[in-house]
Write a structure and sequence with these properties.
heterotrimer; A alpha+beta; B alpha+beta; C alpha+beta; B: alpha+beta; DNA polymerase, domain 1; five-stranded mixed β-sheet; C: alpha+beta; Aldehyde Oxidoreductase, domain 3; Aldehyde Oxidoreductase, domain 4; 3 domains; 28% helix; 23% strand
Amino acid sequence: MIPGAFDYVRPSSLEGALTALRAAGDDGKVIAGGQSLLPLLRLRLAYPEILVDLGSVPELSGVRDEGSSLLVGAMTTHYDVLRDPLIHQHAPLVAAATATVADPAVRHRGTFGGSLAHADPAGDLPAVALAMDAVFVTSSREIPASEFFSDYLTSALEPDEVLLGVRLPKSYAGWGFHYEKFHRTAQAWAIVGVACLVQRSNGEISAARIGLTNMGSTPIRASAVEQAVTGGAANREAFRAAAESAAEGTSPPSDLHGSAEYRRHLVTVLTARALSKAASV
Amino acid sequence: MPRVSVEVDGVKYDDDVEPRLLLAHYLRDRLGKVGTPIGCDTSNCGACTVLLDGMSVKSCSVLAVQADGKDVTTIEGLGDGQTLHPLQRAFHEEHALQCGYCTPGMIIAALDLIRENADPSDEEIREGLEGNLCRCTGYQNIVRAVRRAADDMRGPADTTSAPEEATR
Amino acid sequence: MTAAPEIGSARLRSEDARLITGQTNWTDNIQLPGLLHVAFLRSPVAHGRITRIDAEPARGRPGVIAVFTGADFADEQGSLPTAWQVTEDMVLPDHPPVAVEEVRYVGEPVAVVVARDRYLAADALEAIDVDYETLPPVLDMDEAIKEGADLVHADKGTNKSYEWVFAAGDIDAAFRDAPVVIERRYVQQRLIPAAMEPRAVVCSVVGDEYTLWSSTQIPHVLRLMLATVTGIPEHRLRVIAPDVGGGFGSKLQVYGEEVACLLLAKRLGRPVKWTESRSEGNASVHHGRDQIQRLSLAAEADGRIRGLKVDLLADMGAYLMLITPGIPLLGAFMFNGIYKMDAYHFTCSGIFTNKTPTDAYRGAGRPEATFAIERLMDELASELSLDPLEVRRRNWITHEEFPYDTIAGLTYDSGNYEAATEKAHRLFEYDKLRAEQADRRERGDPVQLGIGISTFTEMCGLAPSRVLGSLAFGAGGWEHASVRMLPSGKVEVVTGSSAHGQGHETAWAQIAADRLGVPFEDVRVLHGDTSISPKGMDTYGSRSLAVGGVALYNACEKVIDKARRMAAHMLEADEQDIEFANGTFSVRGVPDQVRTVQEVSLATFLAHDLPEGFEPSLDSDATHDPANFSFPHGTHLCAAEVDTETGFVKLRSYVAVDDIGKVVNPLIVEGQVHGGLAQGIAQALYEEAVYDADGNLTTTTMADYLLPAATDLPTFTTDRTETPATTNPLGVKGVGEAGTIASTPAVVNAIVDALRPYGVADVPMPCTPERVWRACRAGGAQEAGRAGGPEHSPRPGAGGGLGSAGGEA
């Protein structure tokens, strides 16, 4: 299908982008890699009057070392995230989840910031950002991940606000990590995904961070599981027992690929598996 | 209307385009580069895959204006007009196509895959092609063709990988 | 010089040259001077009356040439044809190409825009304002046949299009006091064919001569039908199927969009093009399958089948299209499979619903039948605690029994089920996998292993015209071929088969080269254009080789017969003494006296010195009407790993041993089997067209309708046995649908086999992770004496022993 008509600007500076967005008001829309937006435009499920393309704003791409954290530029493509040594060193969970995003051609265009700002709870990266307590750095403020995802396909970003980058703390470097994605076919969205970070000491789990994909209208932390495993043994039985509470506080959707009831079951199995893989047991 | 300057298969084009014009339609309807077909609305099928500055993209999910200043390679730009590209030859010799509609995108995606990984295993080939759907072949001969092309492209000195899908 | 035989050689395909270089001629590639672009506005409601259409705002949009509604076309658009009147009293509703008063499925065309380019045409659709008075949609076949049900076609007074019955043997006697009765209800879900190339149509008019390019499997049938529907004389209409990107039955159709494009070109006097988008196509290309099967099998205590009862509800969708009503009946003769039995009773009711019409999809009727019998054989084995292969052995037709008249009234000419099964058994390492299965069961492994079997046959080579006539099909089943001997010694073959990915250009050249003794490279195959190939019945139902290939064989024989006379004249010998081999005519006993077929061809062209009364041409035509169907068969074995915690199914190995008779090109055969397997496996695991409670299709995109990618399918092991068909001179049977027909039950049997210890006797298709998981839970509940819910309940019955004799009510 064919998108409806829109105007288009590709500013070469952040200031230019902000000016364009302010002028557009509610009719403007940022386009990053466009890999989520273009299908929506083609199906005529979205009708922006003006697209502001961030593709020529140089300072939005790349991964920067900020000492205790990394700042991943919003326009950094999935492909570049996957090749970045800093990501592999300090935030390997991000690399693991990014590798499961769509397919190679989409990862060449799709961006880290774009897929987070799209705020699709079925996307793979929001749960990771949540688990890692990422901080969303925008043109006007800093938003913690716990406040960034406000609803289905809705983030805390204002229409004239641009996501500049996402700050990933280095504090999880060295933790065990795993992203467990469950989908029906290679191309299908996750029915459920589990992003998991665990810190082990002396055969026990000393800390755990778990984010859930597609278990509600936003990504969700599996706080009950995190608490249950912390201080417990790092073995499969303990993980299975702790994961029993993985669906606590979630409100998963029912759709073509799985009912809410199934997702509530699935998340317990997948959380146990993610913990085991993250803890390498 | 924005003006774009694009090099496609070695030829430079300067055109005024509507912002909403998809790269795939620009190639097909404006430039007559109809070797790249379109198979879906949602970037699932991959039939329209081309290289944009050397990287595979789905040309139905890129605006023509986003290709401004970039270099596009389509299936029509492989080979030199006289001899086939090793991937084209391998697809032919391994019977990796039937109706052929997915083939241009599949070959371009495979080219990108081999650029990333010169000696891919069968599993890596299957994963590397997961953004390209084929309804005719069941993929088995495509995997075989990509492996063969990768071997050919590495040259005779480095064809040590054991055949993994030997069954016919 | 004796060349290697062309028939049987793994020739690389000649059609690849354009397909791998981007020089393919897809319909959407066609550009004509003044070409206009067409877009269809489609119904957003499943059932409704059109109370008002305001197209004026669209007419005023920039670049818009014209907008028409169904009412504008009402006088000339006719009704889309149905070529199969399956019963005398079949209810056949009017089917306007563009809806006039009422819409009956989401996606039905209601108006059409013609504009300067495709973007402007798409925009103008949004400016057409349509008011619908919505009517209650009919979405469930069981509900649709109840007294007082809402009606899809109110004027018809019923949702039942027809009831068709076939009976053979004494079915009551077979079931009376039967030691074992297995009763099951299986659902063949609705599928979307999803050929990679979306449909496209281009139509031009010059004076009163029309040319229509369409992405179709059936240029010849389409030409006749379009002429009939629109009144444009057949001889003024040329239909071209350029390169066609797959069909799988979906392009075996006469579509409203094709009629509309013809009418638009006629009205506007300018060429028009329409190209479908995927999401529009998912809702408007005909769908496949969609049957509810109620099955009863009566057997002896030793597993021998006594009789089979089949009661089908087949979803026609909103209208009958080209062969919609006949599709389930193509399965009527196949429910008995490869097995012997005393009695068979088949009933099928065709039901209207407010959904996209159904019609042929790869296998067309035969996958449904094969699924039913092959699932039942596994259930019977389970009931009797026998190995499922053993139950099959006790029932199948043995190789010495051919030709065999089946209970369904067909004569299977040949086959060797033992040989194919033995080979598959060995390649699969059956006993080793059974041992692993036992071990996993023993250990209580959360990932269980299942082994699925499908020993299938199918009928293809559609079809003997007299059989089609007896079934009231609206055409014959012959195929046509011509061979043109060019003066330079080259050969042109014209075929009425219409390839869309199969590789006829290669295989047909092999047949001609083989028969005429000319080099493969010297043969060119022409097809897909009614001006170039004026006679044909096109490509579907695995018929091309078994009918069209044989027509070509016969045409080649006629060429040789003519050339033999000419050669005798040239060699000054008696025609009876002329021998022909490898392209050379010689006089018996005088080996140095030879003329090549090319020399004979040139001499005939020159015509300077011909035998008395000899017409100066070797060119020959043949129209072949098969004497019988052909019956490919095979044994497929599937190993599936089933994760009982998540319900995820991973196919570990798949062995397909097919017997398709003589093979012209093993490379092409292998490709056909691979692709067929992928589609059959996808029915078992992934694909389903889903409608919501309002009748909206929810799987309109490839993001929702899941097609397998490379990572979702296993590496197949394929092999063959070769039992030639005895009913045609090539000994060929057909291969296009074998993989699809065989694989679906093999996969589901494997899943159920894995879960037998959990009390599972069925998992509805597609076997999604959730359904597999639910079956595990409900199966356990069954064992505990509780019934599962209706949506997910496996049918109880196979609880061991002979306890289910008598079956369910």
